[in-house]
Design brief:
This protein is an alpha/beta fold. It has 31 helices and 32 strands. Residues 1-21, 810-819, 865-870 and 914-926 have low confidence and may be disordered.
Length: 926
């Protein structure tokens, strides 16, 4: 019984200990750090107060525990904000709401990391705060990473390629612009100029920064600043005439916060921001949101606060609820709110900072885990975090400032991009971020224009374009000139005609490059364009790989490619020219084959065809006459045997091929020019060791050495068409070149004046000529469109015909030059087939003769009378006699008809002899 009482007492004491251990505190402290006197701070202060009252009044969250909010004013100062943060930590807060400044957030994040106190900011949007070095920082608003993607989508929607970023040069500004650059790069656009404004700059400094930005070509301005500096930016921009037609201003959500907080807007300020596109954090409509707005307005009126509510007030309200729910879950899991001394913090000798008063929150890691598991619907919509600690479903409203307020033109969300439908509706559907699905309402741009601005102008405040033009001593049909005001040529006419078709006026000034005696280095001119020493390069510029890496080229206005030109000579007239189509071996084999076919046909026809019989002399004549007359299809002899006809058909086909080839080759030899150097195309050029000429300054040298691996020692630079002709005429043996490699348009001009040279082989590269502009220059695209218009209208061809007339000395025929003699190799297959057919016919013929000969011999032996004793001896002697070679030849020479007649007669003779013998025997018996 006593033991039972002890057990009961033990369990009672244990229950008391558990109850004491799990007892919820009556009050929990949470810190709040923001700037009271600011557009964001005024909205957030009332929102936080309302949220604390609602949490404490709510029975289901923190039941029995009061949420105590300890606020500190950072006063828009990084230094003071840091001091205020330390003061909050001394009050043993379990979490800190704020700060609203990204710069202060960077500093305080190191403090909370050390003390394990979660930091929840409803206004610090710098994307770099999400780095892994700040594990206790949690953003309860939308990161500027998403906002800059929204800006990039707008830029891409209107097909702008370059923007100027205007920002305050602090952590908030730099982090946002960094995210903007990445977002634009994904849309194939970029920040062309960064206009950084130092913090707390006066109007003069802002004026200098904007003036330099206005000198750039981009007219798409993206402003990412704080409210104080931002409003001064527009005031200065208005004075610099930068708020007029042709400009585009895209402003991040700070301006929407300013406009939302201004209950009575200053008319002067509104006149400075007409036509702007402004982003605002999207909060879906709901009863909870409307109820909160009503409460906030009532509290503001009761305190005579003139400031209005902005989107950051909504996020501040939800942040308090996020902390309250996390604390509730923390306590419900049995955790205790305890603080301990941080051994790394101590007071140095004589210090008055009292760092030892800062305590380490023992449950900080568990509290952070509960915060990341937050999942509820607040006044801003779903409050939930993804794997990157960002709020789910980030979205923005897109506004257009006009009159005394703003006009809604669309939404952006990371689910479906730009749209005019609310994001909460689109989140119920499949994502569709294709370009065709993007949509916005019409915008009224600065200056009151409804036409989408082009987004760029010529830089240097309207100064004419600096257009570089290469001046050479030759090929003046393409480009020539003695000064900037006297530039002409085919390429110049194309450029002038295309410039007239641009939808806007363009002023330009030619800058001649080169002294007219030696060719300038073309890639150096392109480098000057890339280095901004020139705005464009116009002339005979080939669009090649190393050039496109430096500059932007237009659509090609003429096709080009490398070809080989070599010296040629007319074939010499000779009395024996008719023998040149075939080589000696070809003639010999062809003649032998004629005789062979004649003999084969004679053998096949001799025994059955009277036309192939007669005296030996006549038969030899018939063989030669028949074989050579088939060349002209004039043979008189009829072929009666099947084998003979088969051989003749094959032979006539061979004769047809031989005569056709001979005729074509003889025509070519008598009319086509012949090569002097033996270079017939690219392969023979590479394999030879002969010197090669090229045009100095062009890309040909690099192509020959790098792509074709031709040694530099073989290359000879040439400048003019006259140097081309001289080098080719001298040839390799006299210090000249064997061939010249250059682009087709140059060679066409060269050959129109020099007639003893020709293009050999095929064109072995494919490129074109275009005009070069600076990288990503919008003018390159517009000029390409103009060149296509010139081509479609036929003007491009007319300009070509004006400068390139019909060559004065070019040959009328387009026959290729080179060796035209035909060798045995070209007909070896044909001859082999013919020989095999003849061999086959002979094998069949002699097999048949042999069989016939055997039959004939047997019949001859059977027809001889013999005594009983001498029969076998005589028969063997007869067979031996018939089997001799001479007898075989005689048998072959016999007519087929005669052999058959004798073979048919022998059996009848034998029967008669047998009948006579029987009759004689009977007479003797009688």
């Amino acid at each position: 019984m006593g033991a039972t009482r002890l057990v009961i007492l033990f369990w009672a004491l244990s229950a008391v200990d558990v109850a004491l251990a799990g007892a919820r505190p009556s009050e929990v402290a949470v810190g709040a750090l923001f700037t009271y006197d600011s557009s964001i701070g005024r909205a957030a202060q009332l929102a936080i107060e309302l949220a604390v009252d609602d949490v404490n009044a709510e029975g289901t969250v923190l039941s029995g525990t009061k949420l105590n909010m300890v606020t500190q004013d950072s006063k828009c100062s990084g230094f003071l904000g840091t001091i205020e943060a330390f003061q909050l930590m001394e009050k043993n807060v379990v979490a800190v709401i704020g700060p609203q400044s990204s710069g202060i957030g960077h500093v305080i994040s190191h403090v909370v990391n050390e003390l394990h106190v979660p930091l929840l900011s409803f206004a610090a949007t710098d994307p770099t705060l999400s780095a892994s070095e700040y594990p206790y920082f949690l953003r309860t608003t939308i990161s500027d990473y998403f906002q800059m993607n929204a800006v990039a989508s707008i830029v891409d929607y209107y097909q702008w390629k370059r923007v100027t970023a205007i920002f305050v040069d602090d952590d908030y500004g730099r982090g946002g612009v960094l995210a903007l650059g990445d977002a634009l790069a994904a849309k194939r656009a970029k920040i062309s100029y960064k206009a950084a404004i130092p913090p707390n700059s006066n109007l003069d400094v802002i004026n200098d920064v904007l003036f330099r930005a206005n000198m750039m070509e981009s007219r798409v301005m993206v402003v990412h600043a704080n409210p104080d500096t931002g409003m001064r930016i527009f005031s200065v921009a208005n004075k610099l005439q930068m708020m007029t037609s042709g400009y585009v201003w895209i402003v991040t959500d700070w301006l929407a916060a300013v406009l939302g907080s201004s209950a009575s807007r200053d008319i002067k300020d509104m006149s400075d921001i007409q036509g702007l596109i402004v982003l605002r954090q999207h909060t879906p409509e709901s009863d909870a949101k409307n109820k909160f707005i009503s409460k906030w307005n009532s509290l503001a009126r009761s305190r005579n606060i003139n400031s209005g509510l902005n989107s950051y007030g909504f996020y501040a309200y939800d942040t308090v609820w996020t902390v309250a729910r996390a604390i509730d879950q923390f306590l419900n899991s049995g955790q205790q709110i305890n603080f301990s001394t941080d051994p790394t913090l101590y007071d140095s000798n004589g210090s008055t900072m009292h760092l030892s008063t800062l305590k380490l929150f023992d449950g900080g890691e568990q509290m952070l885990r509960q915060l990341l598991l937050t999942n509820f619907t607040g006044v801003t919509g779903p409050v939930q975090y993804d794997s990157d600690r960002n709020l789910v479903r980030p979205a923005y409203d897109i506004l257009n400032i006009g009159g005394s307020g703003s006009r809604f033109i669309g939404y952006w969300s990371n689910h479906s991009g730009l749209s005019v439908a609310a994001p909460e509706i689109l989140y119920q559907k499949q994502p569709n971020t294709s370009t065709s699905a993007q949509q916005l309402y019409n915008v009224v741009w600065p200056g009151g224009s409804t036409t989408t601005p082009r987004g760029w102008v010529f830089p240097n405040n309207g100064q004419p374009l600096r257009v570089g033009v290469p001046i050479k001593s030759s090929f003046k049909e393409l480009v020539s000139g003695k000064g900037p005001d006297n530039v002409r040529g085919y390429c110049i006419d194309i450029f002038n005609a295309a410039a007239k078709l641009l939808p806007y006026p363009v002023t330009y000034q030619f800058v001649t490059i080169g002294d007219g005696t030696r060719n300038p280095i073309y890639i150096d001119i392109i480098r000057r364009v890339a280095a901004n020493s020139l705005d464009a390069a116009v002339g005979d510029f080939a669009i090649v790989r190393n050039g496109t890496q430096l500059a932007e080229y237009t659509q090609p206005y003429i096709e080009s490619g490398l070809v080989i030109v070599a010296p040629v000579k007319k074939a010499t007239r000779s009395a024996w020219a008719f023998l040149k189509p075939f080589t000696l071996e070809m003639w010999c084999v062809t003649g032998a084959l004629f005789i062979l076919v004649g003999i084969v046909v004679w053998l096949l026809e001799h025994r059955i065809n009277e036309e192939f019989r007669g005296p030996p002399r006549r038969q030899i004549t018939t063989i030669f006459w028949f074989s050579f007359s088939t060349m002209f299809y004039s043979h008189r002899q009829n072929i009666v045997s099947a084998l003979g006809r088969f051989v003749l058909i094959i032979w006539l086909f061979v004769v047809l091929i031989i005569t056709s080839s001979y005729t074509a080759s003889l025509t070519s030899i008598l009319t086509v020019q012949q090569l002097e150097t033996g270079i017939t195309g690219l392969n023979s050029l590479i394999s030879s060791s002969l010197p090669i000429g090229y045009q100095a300054g062009k890309f040909t040298k690099r192509y020959l050495t790098q792509n074709l691996n031709i040694p530099m020692s073989r290359l000879v630079p040439l400048n003019t068409a006259q140097e081309y002709a001289d080098a080719l005429n001298r040839g390799p043996k006299h210090g000249g070149v064997a061939a010249i490699v250059d682009e087709k348009p140059y060679i066409d001009i060269f050959l129109s004046n020099y007639c003893n040279f020709r293009i050999v082989g095929q064109q072995f590269t494919r490129e074109g000529w275009g005009f070069a502009f600076q990288r990503d220059s919008p003018l390159a695209e517009d000029m390409s469109t103009a060149i296509l218009q010139l081509s479609e209208s036929g003007q491009l061809e007319r300009i070509h015909d004006e400068w390139f007339s019909r060559p004065s000395c070019a040959s009328d025929d387009d026959s290729e030059v080179g060796e035209t003699r035909l060798g045995l190799r070209s007909f070896s297959g044909l001859f082999l087939i013919c020989a095999l057919i003849c061999l086959f016919a002979l094998v069949v013929f002699f097999t048949r003769i042999y069989w016939q000969y055997k039959q004939y011999s047997n019949f001859e032996a059977a027809g001889e009378p013999s005594a009983p004793d001498a029969d076998s001896v005589r028969r063997q002697q007869r067979l031996s006699s018939l089997g001799s070679f001479k007898e075989l030849i005689q048998f072959v020479d016999k007519k087929e008809e005669e052999v058959r007649r004798k073979m048919k007669r022998r059996p009848s003779d034998k029967d008669n002899q047998a009948a006579g013998s029987s009759y004689a025997t009977s007479v003797d018996s009688a």
